[in-house]
Design goal:
heterodimer, A: 122 residues, 8 helices, B: 322 residues, alpha/beta, Ubiquitin-like (UB roll), 3 domains, 6-stranded antiparallel beta sheet
């Protein structure tokens, strides 16, 4: 019986390990840190946990509308494709650090890309 | 079928419906996003009826104790009354036991509450004056050691409450004190971890409580306190802290002055900068931050980047009322 992507990556424990690494990476990334700063860090971490659960193929009930509403204020701040690219890049390097295979990383990136237009309100 | 009450109106729950589904179905706007119990956007509070454990998963201990829950994961098993409002504060009368100037900026206020108040060292209370003026102050006392509530009040230019406390309040006067709250307290699971405490001005108050509670609990790992102010007049309890460092081998006291040149026995730097410079790797440390909101925000970010887990960085920012 084949495992789901989420199970292969390690489920919730993998998400928790990934948030730790990913959040530090985006805070230190000058291209996108401004979108993550000034926000309550605990709340931000919860949102990232939900986002990573989704791109890991885990249980989530986001709709396109949720993604649009959730990022609308960032789009006003100038959020564009380059920033989404940077986030996906940081996601990839996070997974590499966790020892995830390239094939799996590509699947995660594909899920992230699938919500790009919703995130950018297009 | 359990009954759901929100803003004085009753709502019938269907089948295995969550609080979020039920309210949304009736046209009530409840903030939400992932609808999977993770992002915490749908947080509500129960006023009556305990939320099922599943609905409190991932919430802080203090939030769970206050009855907060995630609406998308809450399928009520019993009647519940819920709200989007913060908890009302329960007030208790208290008398001034003593009011002592520690220096010309900081007053030590000790209060006797009319009934015992449960709190963790490091939490804060709201102090309410007769005319309704309310301000928050952190507790420096330790319940198992002190039979009074101790607050450190910094005189703020133009501050209504701090001026009143410094200039008019006397022994025997009455005030009201609220239910203690706050995140900057010593958790028992901190016992085998090094502690880093950073405070500015009267932010020392809760840290003083945390340190004494840690040492009282038999804490053996290093405990580092960085207390900062622009000038020496902002530091206080200096002798007491030096004495504590002398009697406890694992406690280190580092007074910091950001506005004065090299003074013997003091570090010439901002407390948070000095702390992170000396301890660039905070993996498995517990970090406590108190004082100016800018310092707290920056230090939290830097402590996290230095490897401390978010849940292990506990802070209360002192926001001035304007």
């Amino acid at each position: 019986m084949t495992q789901s992507l989420y199970e292969t990556l390690g489920g919730e424990a993998a998400v928790n390990a990934a948030v730790d690494i990913f959040y530090r990476k985006v805070l230190a990334d000058n291209r996108i840190s401004r979108f993550f700063e000034g926000v309550d860090m605990d709340k931000q971490a919860s949102k990232q946990k939900a986002f990573l659960t989704m791109v890991f193929g885990g249980p989530n009930n986001y709709t396109g509308k949720d993604m649009r509403t959730g990022h609308a204020h960032l789009v006003k701040m100038g959020l564009n494709d380059s920033h989404v690219d940077a986030v996906i890049e940081n996601l990839g390097s996070t997974l590499k650090e966790l020892g995830v295979k390239d094939g799996e990383i590509a699947k995660v990136a594909a899920i992230a890309n699938s919500v790009r237009n919703d995130v950018l309100g297009r | 079928m359990p009954k759901l009450t929100f803003e004085a109106r009753g709502y019938e729950l269907r089948g295995n419906e969550s609080v979020l589904e039920c309210l949304t179905r009736h046209g009530v706007t409840v903030p939400h996003s992932c609808k999977s119990g993770i992002c915490q956007s749908c947080m509500m509070r129960s006023v009556r009826g305990a939320p099922p454990a599943e609905a409190q998963k991932g919430l802080k201990e203090s939030q769970q104790a206050d009855g907060y829950f995630l609406a998308c994961s809450c399928v009520p098993q019993t009647d519940m009354e819920v709200t989007l409002d913060a908890p009302e504060l329960f007030l208790v009368p208290a008398k001034v036991q003593s009011l002592v100037r520690l220096n010309n900026k900081i007053a030590r206020l000790r209060l006797q509450a009319a009934q015992p108040i449960e709190y963790r060292p490091g939490q804060f209370v709201n102090v309410r004056r007769d005319d309704g003026l309310i301000r928050s102050y952190s507790l420096a006392s330790v319940p198992q050691q002190d039979d009074y509530l101790e607050l450190h009040v910094q005189r703020n230019a133009g501050g209504q409450m701090s001026s009143w406390i410094h200039d008019q309040l006397k022994e025997g006067d009455a005030v009201q004190v609220s239910t203690p709250r706050g995140e900057c307290y010593y958790r028992p699971d901190a016992l085998d971890h090094p502690l880093l405490l950073i405070g500015t001005g009267s932010g020392l108050a809760p840290l003083y409580g945390v340190i004494r509670e840690a040492l009282r609990s038999g804490h053996r790992d290093p405990v580092w306190l960085f207390h900062g102010s622009r000038a020496r007049t902002g530091l206080y309890l200096v002798d007491e802290l030096r004495a504590l460092a002398e009697t406890h081998e694992n406690f280190r006291y580092m007074p910091c002055l950001s506005g004065e040149p090299d003074l013997d026995g003091y570090i010439s730097a901002r407390a948070d900068a000095a702390a992170l410079q000396q301890h660039p790797n905070l993996k498995s440390w517990r970090v406590y931050l108190c004082g100016h909101p800018d310092m707290v925000k920056l230090a939290k970010r830097n402590a996290f980047l230095a490897g401390a887990a978010l849940r292990d960085i506990q802070s209360d920012a002192f926001v001035s009322a304007h």
